[in-house]
Amino acid sequence: MSARFVQFLLLARWGSALVALMYHVRFLAFVNYDAVEDKSLLLTGLYFLTGLGHEAYAVCFILDGMLVGLILRRQRAGPGPGDASLGRHALGLYGLLLPGLLLGAAFDHTGAHLFGDTGVYTAFPEFSTLALGLAVLLGNLLMLQPFVVANFGGNSMLYLLSYLFWSLVLLAVFLRAGQLPQPHRRAARVLLPALAIVFLPYQFLIWSAIWLAGLGLVFLAEGRSWRPPLPATLPLFGAALLLSRFLGPATRGLEAVLRDWVIQFGFLGAGVGFAALVWSVYPKGQDSGTFAAVRASEAWPAQAASFTFFFHFPVIMLLAAWGDARLGQPLMQQPSVAYPWFAGLVLASVLTATGIALTVDSARRAFGNAARLTSGRRGGSPS
Question: Transmembrane segments in this chain: where (predicted)?
């Protein structure tokens, strides 16, 4: 697979992570746009960009769906290098979850103990409430958030990780049903989506549809040599972002459930728009180099981006509470006096995620080397 395209996917992963991170940091560091005293074109652009948080979620889901599509395509191609599989990808999600929960527990407990009376850990931010406890932790370890338990700690992003995990599980069950004899095969493949539509929350179904759009993109691009022109898909993606961004303010008069449906479908549109953009730059004539894209997603730069995306809340909440209590950096300041603080919170979260990704990668390599050394000793002939 084209090295340039693999780099594009990595940049898109980092872009979605940074936009999501800045989206939440802005709520902590800056006042709402209506309360800004000195508005400018640059500042308006910053507020618009940092308002695309949920659209960044959609980009992340498209990228993960593409990764699963590449894994399935490689498996269908027959034996090849490496051991990419859906099971390995699911373990990769846990490779993010376990250190993330440890980080969240340490940061949230510290913050609640030292700065529990600040707005960060009480009424603010409204999008993240502190939910600590063993039952919640165990539920998150089983990926039961938000279906059965709350997100652990103040990390509101954990429900997205659960959505990815259960989308992967449902896909694996659907694929396994294809091994049943007829007519059970067809009945199982019709019954499974029907049960999901009836019993699962519509929010999960919409985000799973975004993920499936990324998966389907791989098979569409691999099966056709035609590519939509970039000059057409780029403005299409931009229009989808604009539409999604303004659906919230435009639907304030609607009933709450209907309004949420409309907004969620706006996120779906943003995801499909990004998928169309990726289709236009998808390399032609793919071969076993697909495995390189799968491996690149497991390397520490991609893992650092994913960790930044899913686990920035505990970092920025602790630092925002510390700044409010100790550094004279109150919550929700005017942007003109809070730009350095905003940048500092973003940088601290990225550095924390990068450090953890490097640590996990080093531990994984050391474990792999030790396992290979042990296997070599056992397989060697006695002296």
Answer: 41-70, 91-107, 127-150, 157-178, 190-220, 232-249, 261-282, 302-321, 341-360
pLDDT tens column, 154-187: 899 999 999 999 999 999 999 999 888 888 888 9
CA distance 53 to 82: 35
The distance of Cα 295 from the centroid of its chain, to the nearest Å, equals 18
- Contact in structure between 55 and 247 (CB atoms under 8 Å): no
> Would you tell me how many other CB atoms lie within 10 Å of the CB of residue 286?
19
Helix H segments across the chain?
3-29, 41-50, 53-76, 86-115, 134-141, 158-177, 184-199, 202-223, 230-250, 256-281, 290-298, 300-310, 313-326, 335-379
pLDDT in tens, 297-309: 889 999 999 999 9
285's CB contacts (< 8 A; 6+ apart) are none
Residue pair 321/164 in contact (Cβ under 8 Å)? The answer is no
Amino acid at 335: P
The dihedrals phi and psi of 251, each to the nearest 5 degrees, come to -115, 20
Short-list 83, 33, 43, 59, CA closest to 291: 83
Of 242, 250, 246, 169, the closest CA to residue 204 belongs to: 169
Return d(Cα 327, Cα 320) in angstroms, integer: 10
| Dist. CA 8–CA 4, nearest whole Å | 6
Handedness of CA 270, 203, 310, 365 (dihedral sign): negative
At what angle are helices 202-223 and 53-76 packed, to 10 degrees?
50
In a 3-state reduction of DSSP, which class is residue 68?
helix
